[in-house]
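U., I forgot to send this yesterday:
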Amino acid sequence: MERKFVKWRFATLSDMIMGSSWNLQAGAKGMGGGNTQTIMLSASLFDTLELNNLSEKWLSKHSSLQSSVKSIAQKLSHDLIQYL
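Result:
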């Protein structure tokens, strides 16, 4: 039986690290009521999963967390300079 991806979405680890928001949140009554860390992720961080995302070329390009974060930081720097 063949299976197809139907509207699956994904986010890379580098996108999660660079785009997440950490919030201190009080736990519910059953959780002891203490403060816990909640990670908020915007839906815009997620891309549609396509067959291309499983190719060797795509995986090789996105396999290094350091390179991905550096690329995101460079794009942000470039975008910020345009507003100055």
